[in-house]
Write a structure and sequence with these properties.
The complex is a heterodimer. Chain A is an all-alpha fold. Chain A has helices at 2-19, 36-50, 54-66, 72-84, 88-101, 106-118, 122-135, 137-149. Chain A has eight helices and no strands. By secondary structure, chain B is an all-alpha fold. In chain B, helix 2 (15-25) packs across helix 3 and helix 4 runs antiparallel to helix 5 (84-105). Chain B is globular. Chain B starts with a helix and ends with a helix. Classes of the chains: A mainly alpha, B mainly alpha. Chains A and B meet through helix 1, helix 5 and helix 7 of A and helix 1 and helix 2 of B.
Chain lengths: 166, 106
């Protein structure tokens, strides 16, 4: 009886920590445990990304990944840059890696939908939209407008103007 | 652990998150599967906690965790997939409890 009670108390204490796994991630976040060199390369990539220097950003993101920064944001942002230079198939591959690493990464689903849209695959874009709307209503609304307008680039980098972005 | 996760999936606002996960990894009938898994974790966790129907509960939870490894953790790679080892441990616990039930373990 006492053992059961102790377990129940432990679960109640652990509940908020367990629930934190559901928090939506931002594309600028860097998980703990990534090497400092990879972090530096990722941050340089982000700055280039924000100033829309896609080819230079790709180099930095790829460097970050090569230095052990195999985290979802790195693959997601790398994919985004590839989409922007027209390499949509490569972008789709990379979004899928980001989603293998974090299957409930809303931004990666959002961007994957936009990549499908860029390829003219509206049905696949809508399948991704169905996932995004369950993860982030605001993001989903924006994506829905992009799909309806058939414009993959519509409002696809709102985080770059966020006051929280580095 | 199972109890809390089951509660979150059924009543704690994680249902959509679970369906999104299932859709992403290709679990069929994602909406229904999310309810079933939530119920299994909630009732299974309760069973383990109260030592009632421990064997079937442990066996079903072990199967669930095996599916988690196969469809979510394995593609992430063994090293660096931070929950992998933990899920593996839960399987071992499930398998350990499944044939013996609560009496011998207790």
């Amino acid at each position: 009886m006492m053992r059961g009670l102790a377990l129940a108390c432990a679960l109640l204490i652990l509940a908020p920590w367990l629930a934190s796994g559901a928090r939506a991630a931002d594309v600028t976040e860097i998980p703990a445990g990534v090497s400092s060199e990879a972090v530096k390369a990722f941050k340089r990539g982000l700055e280039l990304h924000k100033s829309k220097e896609w080819a230079a950003a790709i180099k930095e993101y790829e460097r970050a990944v090569a230095l052990g920064g195999r985290f979802p944001e790195a693959f997601n942002n790398l994919a985004y840059c590839y989409r922007k230079i027209g390499q949509v198939d490569r972008a789709i591959e990379l979004y899928k890696i980001a989603l293998q690493l974090r299957p409930t990464f809303p931004q990666a689903h959002d961007y994957l939908a936009r990549a499908y849209l860029a390829k003219g695959d509206r049905a696949a874009a809508l399948r991704e939209y169905d996932i995004v709307r369950r993860l982030d209503a605001k993001l989903a609304h924006c994506l829905r407008v992009a799909i309806d307008r058939n414009d993959p680039d519509y409002n696809d980098m709102p985080w770059a103007s966020s006051p929280n972005s580095p | 652990m199972f109890l809390v996760h089951g509660w979150l999936k059924l009543l704690g606002g994680h249902h959509d998150l679970t369906v999104a996960l299932f859709l992403t990894v290709g679990i069929p009938l994602a909406e229904t599967a999310a309810w079933v898994v939530g119920g299994l974790e909630l009732l299974g966790g309760l069973a383990l906690l109260t030592a009632v129907l421990v064997r079937p509960a442990a066996a079903l939870l072990a199967v669930e965790m095996a599916v988690v490894i196969a469809v979510v953790r394995l593609p992430q790679g063994f090293v660096g997939a931070w929950e992998f080892e933990f899920v593996l441990l839960l399987i071992c616990l499930g398998l350990a409890l499944s044939p013996t039930g609560a009496r011998r373990m207790g």
